[in-house]
């Protein structure tokens, strides 16, 4: 039965109590400060004014610019054209106005920062109006401008729940307006709540969707494109944008191998275990660039899944595309936003380790079973139990010595949005400081990101100019043994091993993590700097409506520096403070740098002629990459000084490489739509790449797609009117893409393998007294016939909306088939003695088939708004023909990969449980070893030859990569309160736990509580077979790869949760803030998974060999967002 874990192990309740105390203190400080600001900011404001011979109206405008006061008046009702002169120095506003209005019939009423001006005795009676503004679905609309018609400066805006409250003159006409909806006028009514419904001018079906090299609308989309609403995503305080999208989008899989500071989760799409292409502002960027993107900078986020959506990116898009556009400035609006997050993190699981006494008892039992001397004598065992001799018989708690209860992180974000009609800009700055749970102050990850986007409209020239710069600085400092190495040492040390002597100094115990974390020990430090710049010119042709010409240029430079100081701090013996130095240290410096230039030329034509709409895009693109890497190492330092110059030159080594890449493409897309009901789209791309031989460097890739909006047919009219079926669209696509990935590595194939060349040997040879650098024969025979893989892709989708579009959703069926894998022909390599040249293996094929869907329901009940969403993805894979299979393997139906699911775990024996008594050994097949006894694993004789051998291995289990993924999202709101949560889960995957019980952490160590559940006469219903001290005891019978060590690794977890309150909505309505929001959030708080019985986070360790990597973290954070 699965268990739910919340707090466990060493953190306990104490940790959460500390965090809650810190949160409470922070909350009251913030609240007190905000209330103080609200109460005093206006009452203390005084004015200095110096104007001569200006109109009264102009003087009022000057006051508005120099202060926070705003005026409400009717320009035709008073002498506002009268010339006035005044000079004041820091006097109250009332005194200034009395001087200005002296000799006129004007009077004023001051309420906080709002000043109403009217003729003396003619001021209208005012009333208070309130109400709520919703759309046609009844969903509240925040940010609606509510103004009084004919009165300048009088107005407000609706809050997050669509509510407004305003004092207006009696019989006033209110105007409600917001982008995307038609303006509406209503007579002000007091005494009851006004209900205002705005009709959408841009229906939800006409929302802009970012696609390859352009935009479209939801209604017009013919391909599989999902979008992500960044409103709630950006609020999640995570280290990477990748971490924030898990469980939100169908077809998108997010995996995290570990939780070390600076680690990045990976994203894959529709069952592919290779990363998709990442595009930021129409420019292809690296996965690292994307992972470091500030979520608060993102305006639009789209996921392109099928060939029709991705074909324009050609070979780079075989595994899907993720496109984001970043924020830009807005005309006539200045907004400043700041947010702060204080984050506390700890592992989702702390392995439960046994104490020294329990450990000694277990090892004594093991020794007795094998007829060996006990691990501890009765006398020594008593010393362990009582702790009377802690130095010679220690009981070491390795976790308590090396790990803190929680790590502390913090994040700051600042952005400014502003502009005029001619120039707008968006600027942002973010800093994220991430700590570690290890007891060290010199290990951390710090990242600073920045961005500046500008847009200039030059109307006289019909020209729009966009420019931007962005980048980040990141420093990652970890122990020289690595986070994973140190954490593994912490968990795999025995309690009977001594960590420190009586003076608290580390011992010489091998792999002693206390010693590795000593301030004197070495480090592995990486500093990365990325700078991106872009410039775009867009010309709208006045001679042909809808024609635009555009050029884009983007330039990226990067510089990475790694410094590894390999040094272990001194160790100390018991009773001594005299250091025992480890071996002499060594130092490695590595410098990498490079630059990428991308040039694009666009021609677009978008025009509608009655019922017919045409959209044409063509692009020429060229990209160049240049890079170089150099590294050097010096060893056997005589002084402890971590500078390269301080090391001896003897045995010093240097290495490096450099290279350049060139790619080009030309592409086009044509879309035709009739009555917005029927849409056809075709796209084609011609790709050129230097990786392939001349004559095979260019590939052509294409896609066709279409949609049919069934709900627009006349026969659907009654269903739409009754809101039984408001929207129904069928779409389908087919396309052929290319790929250039190596079959085994998942990376691009190596260049110039078609060239006949000799490799240089680093070792020199002495010939006739002269040093001559050697050479080696080519590793493969050259050949110039290989080219792109080809990938056929089909997609069929259905989208719907019902109940007045409160319930919406979509279903997609997808199928892809890869063929023409680039590989060496395996049929003859072993006989030839040298690797054969690369070819496109004609019979090799791999297919993926699956289904995904998402359903969302959004509505409100008075002030309570809610939205619930469910998404699901299932992908199956199959090797129709694996090119790695030899001719011999193809004839073996049990061990070949061909005609096997692509997601099976591997090859191994099928376990039939354990031998429960020795009599069972007399019958049935087993390994030829006389020491196999009761409690050992029993295996299936798959080939029926009466023996257990390697020939009985069969495909077992399912890969750790999840083939089933799902998510459930919740978004709730009530009067300034907001609540958001995501449940995320995965299934159809297995984890291999044998490497926890075998290998470097042999079962005989028995350091974990669950390891004690092994078979013995008094525990026959055990999880594991009998324990043995070494594999040779029973001929490694229990250490064979088999499904006995596989566990189902499906899981569901509370991935994110956040509760927030915006003080602007109620307590601070009259403050200068546009938003003042305090929130508490958490990630990975609750999890249900079988793997947790073995203290393995279900998301970690996807390579199955390092199950105890630095653990996935759960976090609790408190944050504040302020907008002005």
TrEMBL record:
Give TM regions.
21-42
The taxonomy runs: Bacteria, Pseudomonadati, Bacteroidota, Sphingobacteriia, Sphingobacteriales
Q: Which NCBIfam families match?
A: OMP_RagA_SusC, SusC_RagA_signa
UniProt-listed InterPro entries: CarboxyPept-like_regulatory, Plug_dom, Plug_dom_sf, TonB-dep_OMP_SusC/RagA, TonB-dep_OMP_SusC/RagA_CS, TonB-dep_rcpt-like
* Localization: Cell outer membrane
Instruction: Name the protein family.
Output: Belongs to the TonB-dependent receptor family.
The species this protein belongs to is: Pedobacter nyackensis
> Which SUPFAM superfamilies is this protein grouped with?
Carboxypeptidase regulatory domain-like, Porins
Q: Which UniProt keywords apply?
A: Cell outer membrane, Membrane, Transmembrane, Transmembrane beta strand, Transmembrane helix, Transport
Q: Which GO terms describe its cellular component?
A: cell outer membrane
Q: What membrane topology does the UniProt entry give? A: Multi-pass membrane protein
Chief localization class? membrane
Q: What is this protein called?
A: TonB-linked outer membrane protein, SusC/RagA family
Residues of the TonB-dependent receptor plug domain: 218-321
